[in-house]
Amino acid sequence: MLSDQFFGQTRAVVDRPDDVAYVGKRLTAAANTEAYKRYALTESGISPMAIPGTPGTAYTADGLEHTERGIPSSGAKDHAVQLAKRERKLLGHEYGDYWADIEGDGDTAVVTFGSSTGPAREAIARAQADGVSVRLVSMRLLAPAQPDKLAAALAGVKRVLVVEQNYGGQLHKYLRSEFQMPGEVKSFRRPGPLPIRAEEVHRQLVEWSRP
Fold this sequence. Notes:
Elements: H1 5-8, H2 76-92, E1 100-103, E2 108-112, H3 117-129, E3 134-139, H4 147-153, E4 159-164, H5 170-178, E5 184-189, H6 198-209
Parallel strand pairs: 2-3, 2-4, 4-5
Antiparallel strand pairs: 1-3
Helix pairs in contact: 3-6
């Protein structure tokens, strides 16, 4: 679980997000479905959910591992097949272009997420005014990993600056473990309570671009 200290310790009033082009819908079970199994093993990993109160579809729902019917289970087989089911659901979904915000072009890229996106975007605008072309990849989907999409977003990049607000460089470590990162990769990170400033990122980009 990646942490973002600024998001974890702040309050803000924000504008309503723009409407997206898609509408998510839940797969639901019909009333009196014969032998209904809330967590049925399916090829897609998705099993219909019975809306509470739907006749003939009562099931157990808790935070424990379970059988296909939702009965709590500590059995190794039940645990394994339900883990595989959840994995199929995540890996089989097409996340489209919403996995990240990708802006600009250049052979230097800033990869970031969360609250660091705003300062990174402003820093890139300042760098471009200084004649340094930088692209931004602000990741919205962190897991499951999308290596092909990130590779396309970073095509032609020679330098990658990973910007994040936490002490341990969690995003940097995650990227190095799950992706083939191009060129030279550096980490710019620090904990709060003060948020990362655009000037700090801008300085990193300009200094890195010098011969």
